[in-house]
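hi! just following up on the protien thing from before. the input was this:
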Amino acid sequence: MSDAALRAHLIETPLDALMAEACAVRDAGGSPLLTYSRKLFVPLTRLCRDVCAYCTFATAPRDLPAPYMTPEEVMALVGKGKAAGCAEVLITLGDKPEDRYSAARDALAAMGHASTIDYVESIAGRIVRETGLLPHINAGVLDYDDYVRLRRVSASMGLMLESTSRRLLEKGMPHYGSPDKDPDVRIASIAAAGRAGVPFTTGLLIGIGETREERLDALFIIRDLHRAHGHIQEVIIQNFRAKPGTRMASAAEPSEAELLWTLAAARLILGADMGIQSPPNLNPGRTGALINAGLSDWGGISPVTIDHVNPEAPWPEIDDLALECDRSGKLLAGRLTIYPAYAQDAGRWLDPDMAKAVMRLSDASALHRHEDWCPGSLRAVPGDAAKPLRAEAPFGLVRRDVDAALLAAGRGETLPETAIATLLEARGEEAHEIVRVADALRRDVCGDTVTYVINRNINYTNICSYACSFCAFSKSSAKAGYRDTPYLMDMAQLATQVEEAAARGASEVCLQGGIHPDFTGATYREIVRTVKRAVPSMHVHAFSPLEVSHGASTLGLSTFDYLAMLKDEGLGSLPGTAAEILDDDIRTLICPDKLVTAQWLGVIRDAHRNGIRTTATIMFGHLERPIHQARHIAAIRALQMETSGFTEFVPLPFVHMESPMFKRGQARMGPTWRETLLLHAVARIALHGAIGSIQTSWVKLGAEGAAACLSAGCNDLGGVLMNESISRAAGAAHGQDMSVDGLERIAALAGRPLERRTTLYDRVAEVS
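and the predicted 3d structure came back as:
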């Protein structure tokens, strides 16, 4: 449709029909979410050189205790915001107050700053460094150089276009005497932000004397600016509110119909992907209507500070807003000040240091990570075995595509990657339903018995010639260690550990290590021989696909032939580790010199063709997104349907504390609790009819976390381990081994009996 035709359509179409079109455009993407940002409002200065007729924010020096907030005042306020769970610090101020007020110039000089922008840069940088929160800067009209400077200390910035009507600059109109409200000036500033690569917020202020046609002019200009630079992440449609003490105190406010028409027009002009926002505190009682006009975001809402631009309008309660979203079939979710699409393309849109700050506050969907829990920590999990998603409010409907995916999986059908990803991103009632379905499938397939194996982990060396960025276990030299120094176990030590394991009742030793530069295929063969000489009955569960590939290459053998050799020596099964994420886009970032996806799958296929059963693992919660997790699960299912060689699927949440890439600010803090629980549940659902056992890791999750996963589709607790090293090296605090009594307590938390198994899931007769 041409712009002229779209204009005519917007003007002539009845409001109800227009709103329905706008909702259809918004909903075409399939997301059930409406978002908001939990923010802190920092009015750095209320001085401004402009004199807008509707504004109560800008004032004169005589009416303020000081021209600017001091750094100490700002940081004290930011501390309160961080304690209240805010992620965004909205720094707002008037335009270039030093151009008008000597008090502003004097105050800046006393603080050692030449301009307001200098002070903004300084205080925003301090906020990021000292608190990790994300500044969003609204500093008025800026030029390209200003944006380049402030981009280093902010995750996003903003400038309301307000209107493109030049009539509003005339005498008697609201922008008279306000040079920074010249539409050409503001358009140039928004364009400069685009050239500087700044994720940006702009919008309209409606009801200040402009016409509908002029609003359309402004929306088309915003669209064209975004087409040129791709930087506008959200557009605010803000309705004028008459305020006492202003020149427009008696002016009529725009009607609800005008607001809804403008929202719908914005959605239809700007498209499905644009964040369209209208402040809920300015529209109490209208939130349902705003949703029905195509709104997708509520903007910033503060648990700490008032709306200093609209101090008469209190913020809505988050729970009340969530209920209103629920009534409209939507789900409220917290976001960061930078929108997900921009955060996920950080190389383009963020300064490197700012990208690190965004990463640490992000979940897998690049929304706000709102919880303190993380894998490996001693913090209590948000849920428990009775209510695994206790912290996840059961709001919202279950979408038809989610319901269809659950039904198809229940019939044993293979789900497409996109359907698996949709399940992994579920929130609210959908997440609850996924957990319920997963647990029902577990009961049908495995019954209520929780299984375990008595085993010992033996990591014979932590010296490794590979450089996986997530790994805190492997070492290349004594200087490279985090918790441990490099070591290499000799065969006598290995035999002793195997004998000790047998004495403690172990039926399995799990053997893995770093890729030592001196190891060959003969080394791994000798490891198997050593175990079998020490305890002939011991099951040898050994060697990652990377170790197998390395060993085969040093002997000039195919992996198939090398695995046959190891099997003849007594290799019983293969741990499906070193899988991380089976998506080469992610592997290139976290383990670029490791096996690519096809190679990993190829080694596992060769094991299965040799009659060697394997496990399958996934390490999640670092850089990957739900679609990458979905590809991994789909690849495992496809191989299992071909070979039937997997015994179990083991989700391994990323433990971040000592990970090199986390220390460099290049990874998230592991998955959130919702993401952790859903990965286990979705694995049960997506692998139904292929892999019968889903394991949960007490090492990563602790007793309560593992018990909760037993109520979300899991049936197995793995092993007692005896000397687990890899998670401990990464910072996990749940211990290196677990007694059988401890495993019984975990199963009891979920109300389930515990039964011992072998590595290959045969029952073990109890010995009296």
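Residues 477-483 have pLDDT under 50 and may be disordered.
The two ends are 81 Å apart (CA to CA).
cheers
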